[in-house]
Amino acid sequence: MVHGTLDEIVPVSHAHLLFAAAPEPKQLHIIDGVGHNSLIPEAGTEWVETISAWADGLEDN
Fold first, then answer.
1. What ranges do the domains of the chain cover?
2. 34-42: which pairs have CB atoms within 8 A and are 24 or more residues apart?
3. pTM for this structure?
């Protein structure tokens, strides 16, 4: 799960609750300073690296 700290639609606290309730395997990556609709364009390479690492991990399962 990737979430921005400035998400104005879904509070970051909800991301933590969903993460806690989700079964393994799971990952939570909080990106500072980005909102709900600006996550991808504003997070840029951090988002790409996070998603790429997650996708690479799928091959291990």
1. 2-58
2. 34/4, 34/5, 34/6, 34/7, 35/4, 35/6, 35/7, 35/8, 35/9, 36/4, 36/7, 36/8, 36/9, 36/10, 37/9, 38/4, 38/6, 39/2, 39/3, 39/4, 39/7, 42/4
3. 0.83
